[in-house]
Design a protein that fits this description.
single chain, 352 residues, 8-stranded parallel sheet, 3-stranded antiparallel sheet, alpha/beta
């Protein structure tokens, strides 16, 4: 057998789904993403949510302030802003967002689907027609949290049901709308994205590539593996790995890294989200290496996303070395701490 690669150099990657939070928490975590990625699509589910272009521009200013406070080199990391879609988002607001040059997408959170989603959409096709028509007209992508929130639908079936009930009718009504199925977690989602016609892509997280739902219960309930969409069974994880590592142009990197204070995760009603920004590229390299497809990591991490968004590939490179990386037990998060995914474990890859 040939000797395994001792290092891997790729074009500087991007993160097409990232939670930065705000204030002191953002200042604590932003350097982790900036160390690895050239750009990131920044999620708008703050309190209050980022529902207008003016709010997005103000949030972008705060991101740059946090970068300076964290000592991030100017120009090394670009936040790409998003709007939070509501039942009342207007077509005029979508036009304004596109013309701002700072807003790159609009995010659909079905009401109650995940963290800070209470202001989300209650009836996409019934209430959001003007906004969707404007997104199609102005070529502004819709990023969907692809789960229904119907309490009668099993938690593990929410993505498949969303595709049938919401995504297929949406794309039939707005065939030119560019859509990203965010953090896809099932074989159903992978199959749809591969076979559907038109302008569609999907992001895949590192944690959904590396873990199935058994990880939630290994030795007891492990809250730092609890995320939404929740980890699925092994057959779905294998489908995600095959899609991500295949080189298929519709799949690209989106960490969905979500920092939560340790105390709110280790709680009687713990919040959802996995913190992976600290070691994102090391996690992805681990997943690709496990199936012998490191040669396709650059397409997934650095090329497919820019192609979907109509942006150039980043200048510069990122190098990973095959050497041990000890994941810390916890990291600063403002005045508290956050526990990174797989804390205390050792990975075999490290960003140079």
């Amino acid at each position: 057998m040939p000797n395994p690669l001792s290092s891997l150099t790729i074009s500087r990657p991007d993160d097409w789904h990232l939670h930065l939070r705000d204030g002191e928490a953002m200042q604590s975590v932003i350097g982790h993403s900036a160390r690895q990625f050239g750009r990131a699509i920044v999620m708008p589910n703050l309190k209050p949510p980022v529902t207008t272009t003016d709010m997005a521009l103000q949030y972008r200013d705060r991101v740059y302030q946090a970068m300076r406070a964290a000592g991030v080199e100017g120009g090394s990391f670009e936040p790409l802003m998003t709007l939070y879609l509501t039942d009342n988002t207007t077509g005029e607001e979508i036009r304004k967002a596109k013309e701002s040059g700072a807003v790159y997408a609009v995010k659909l959170y079905p009401a109650g689907a995940t963290t800070n989603s209470d202001a989300g959409v209650t009836d996409l096709l019934g209430r959001c027609g003007p906004a969707l028509e404007a997104m199609q007209q102005h070529n502004l992508p819709l990023l969907v949290h692809g789960e229904v929130t119907d309490p009668e639908v099993d938690l593990f079936d929410r993505e498949a049901v969303f595709i049938d009930r919401v995504l297929i009718p949406l794309r039939e009504r707005y065939p030119e709308l560019r859509v990203v199925l965010e953090h896809v977690t099932t074989k159903d989602g992978v199959d749809y994205v591969m076979q559907a016609e038109g302008h569609i892509g999907a992001t895949i997280t590192a944690h959904h590539l590396l873990y199935n739902r058994n990880a939630l219960f290994l030795g007891g309930i492990r809250p730092h593996w609890y995320c939404l969409p929740v980890l699925k069974r092994e057959t779905h994880r294998q489908a995600l790995v095959e899609a991500a590592t295949s080189g298929h142009s519709r799949f690209f990197l989106g960490t969905d890294s979500a920092p939560h204070p340790r105390g709110l995760k280790e709680h009687a009603c713990g919040c959802a989200g996995a913190y992976t920004a600290f070691h994102a590229m090391e996690l992805y390299a681990t997943a690709f290496d496990a199936v012998g497809r490191l040669d396709n990591l650059e397409a997934f991490a650095s090329r497919n996303g820019p192609a979907f968004y109509g942006l150039p590939v980043n200048e510069g490179v990122l190098t990973l070395e095959r050497t041990d990386l000890q994941i810390p037990d916890e990291l600063p998060l403002g005045r508290t701490t956050v526990v990174p995914l797989a804390s205390g474990e050792t990975l075999q890859w490290k960003v140079q």
